[in-house]
Amino acid sequence: MALKNDLILRAARGEKTERTPVWLMRQAGRILPEYRAVRNSLSGFIELVTTPELAAEVTIQPVDILGVDAAIIFSDILVIPEAMGLPYEMVEKKGPFFPETIKTAEDVAKLKVADVASDLGYVLEAIKITKKELNNRVPLIGFAGAPFTIFCYMIEGSGSKTFSKARRMLYQAPELAHQLLQKITDSTIAYLKAQITAGADLIQVFDSWAGILPPTQYESFSVPYMKQICDAITEVPKTLFAKGAYFSRHSLAALDCNAIGLDWNMDIAESRKLCAGKTLQGNLDPCALYASDSEIVKATKSMLDLFGFEKHIANLGHGVYPDINPEKVKVFIETVKEYSSNK
Ligand code: CP3
């Protein structure tokens, strides 16, 4: 059965579309009271992620409530470390926490390459249920963290402003860092392929901590692993989002991917030059959604004008913040839909 709305897939492939497609990073989650109702009935985030019927339900909520042009499977990038043998906890109001972290060569040797069917079957099941319930209304986005971002969490054990423990390994034990990055990459490729087999229509790789590296280290510790992922995934369109890594736009655009995500600090015209031929995704400032409706309309139109009306997937420059009023998100989405129609 064909998708009824495949705007995102066509835009990702660079085709001209009737209008600009739109979705939001982190659209499934705390901005929606409907999400909080499901989440509050459970012991916590991890129970929601590992219960396929409920994960599917909250994946579809933003499609019904906000009118986005794609769903993104409700999960987290941290399911990969867990599947490799490093479980995480999600601490209320604080974020992820790993009781054990990677410190030594023995720790890296002990990790396994994820066995996707047995360790991540719950995500695959959630994708299958979501595809069935979406009934071809919109495409489903699968995702994973970039190897470097996952590496940061596995060594640091939690969020951090500097990720200096993780970055220390790049200087003190670069070969060990590469071994760990390779294991994460092998797990990630298997995971993304399984998501596609289960029904994901396109995939996005989130390199959320890319921006903390100097450009030369980004070239050696992230880009080669992004390349392996791009070369291995040939089945569906691929988006790479390296937050803060304005210096790497040209090297990511040189990879076999379809779209490059921009954060709100990245200049659109400059990005068009650096990423010639690729579709761009983004990049309204997430805080613009705190503004009045008329200011949101103005900022959204000006963003759309700067991207032009092809090879663009509208989004924010990062995930939507949890205290944003969903009505403001709707103003953004409706503006994209109306203003870009038949341009
Ligand atoms: O709607 C969607 O985008 C799909 C779901 C999704 C989640 N996490 C759910 C989630 C996606 C795509 C992610 C990706 C993710 N997770 C990233 C990459 C994107 C980015 O924001 O840069 C990162 C770095 C993580 C790690 C993570 N997960 C952190 C740092 C936190 C705590 C801070 C926060 O944003 O809450 C999480 C928790 C998390 N992941 C929540 C959700 C809905 C909140 C948990 C809750 O409901 O209490």
The gyration radius over C-alpha positions equals: 19 Å
Structural class: alpha/beta
Question: What is bound: which ligands?
Answer: coproporphyrinogen III
Largest sheet composition? 7 strands, parallel
- Say how many strands there are: 9
Walk me through the structure.
The protein is an alpha/beta fold. It has one domain: TIM Barrel. 49% of the residues lie in helices and 11% in strands. The protein contains 17 helices and nine strands. The chain has helices spanning 7-12, 33-40, 45-49, 52-66, 79-84, 105-110, 116-119, 121-134, 147-156, 164-172, 174-198, 215-221, 223-232, 249-253, 268-274, 293-307, 326-340; strands spanning 71-72, 89-91, 95-97, 140-145, 202-207, 238-242, 259-261, 279-284, 312-316. The strands form two sheets. A seven-stranded parallel beta sheet has the order 1-4-5-6-7-8-9. The protein has a two-stranded antiparallel ribbon with strand order 2-3. The radius of gyration is 19 Å and the shape is globular. The two termini are 29 Å apart. The structure holds coproporphyrinogen III. Coproporphyrinogen III (CP3) is lined by residues 25-30, 39, 45, 72, 74, 76-78, 90, 95-96, 143, 159, 206, 208, 243, 319.
Brief overview, please?
The protein is α/β, with parallel strands linked by helices and 343 residues long. 49% of the residues lie in helices and 11% in strands.
What is the element layout, followed by pairings?
Blueprint: H1 7-12, H2 33-40, H3 45-49, H4 52-66, E1 71-72, H5 79-84, E2 89-91, E3 95-97, H6 105-110, H7 116-119, H8 121-134, E4 140-145, H9 147-156, H10 164-172, H11 174-198, E5 202-207, H12 215-221, H13 223-232, E6 238-242, H14 249-253, E7 259-261, H15 268-274, E8 279-284, H16 293-307, E9 312-316, H17 326-340
Helix pairs in contact: 4-8, 9-10, 9-11, 10-11, 11-13, 16-17
